[in-house]
Design brief:
This protein has 123 residues and is mostly beta strands. It contains no helices and eleven strands. The strands form two sheets. Strands 2, 4, 5, 6, 9, 10 and 11 form a seven-stranded mixed β-sheet that branches.
């Protein structure tokens, strides 16, 4: 299983971006899909997550501006980011938890990280 994140870029303050993260490989189910970000000199932080039951969680500073969603048929998570601010500048990583996939004749469960995509918001 591999995660591929894309959709980052350079945008002016007030603009929008949509990030996508797709999991490839044979997958039975994914429990939680999440987006994290890490700015220079700061720790990685959770931005938003959605679990298999549809429960949503957002970091306080992005509430009302960012929307996380998932497409289970495509094993893909999305992060719609509106009203972007310079402080949103960071590398954004997707993280899929409890991914159930076949390994040989067994079913295993692992967590996976995407490679990161840079989001830069200019003032």
């Amino acid at each position: 299983v591999q995660l591929q994140a894309y959709g980052g870029g350079l945008v002016q303050a007030g603009g929008s971006l949509r990030l996508s993260c797709a999991a490839s490989g044979s997958i039975f189910s994914i429990d939680t899909m999440a987006w994290y970000r890490q700015a220079i000199g700061k720790q990685r932080e959770l931005v938003a997550e959605v679990n298999s039951g549809g429960r949503l969680l957002y970091e306080d500073s992005v509430k009302g501006r960012f929307t996380i969603s998932r497409d289970n048929a495509k094993n893909t998570a999305y992060l719609q980011m509106n009203s972007l601010k310079p402080e949103d500048t960071a590398v954004y990583y997707c993280h899929f938890e409890k991914v159930r996939a076949p390994v040989g004749d067994k079913v295993r469960q692992y967590d996976y990280w995407g490679q990161g995509t840079q989001v830069t918001v200019s003032s």
